[in-house]
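Researcher: I'm preparing a figure for a lab meeting and need a structural model of a single chain. I don't have an experimental structure, so a prediction will have to do for now. The sequence is pasted below. Please return the structure as tokens so I can convert it later.
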Amino acid sequence: MAKKLETIRLVAGMEKAARKTKKQVWARLAEIIEKPTRHRIAVNLDKLNTIAAESKGKILVVPGKILSEGELTEKTVVVAISASETAKQKMKGKAEFTTLAEFAKKFDKVDVSKVIIVG
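Model: Understood. Here is the structure written out token by token.
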């Protein structure tokens, strides 16, 4: 089955960011996203909360989907391909949620030392 056009564009954007910035985090994200969707990562809010508590001030990047199991009590920045509607509701006020496509557009402004790939 063919990949979605938006996935192809996202991977191309990540690879472009890797070439321009010479930062491996973008290449690693492109590599993970390129995998078939059946291998895509799904992370619950409770796991994000645990990671956010351990690493304050970091940007948590989920190259997959965020699910709504658990609660998010730590203030953090969360980036993912998508999130369930319930997860988005639970994150409101506690986390700043951005899609990976939007995040990739501002790759030159991102401090990659603060990025943690979750999954």
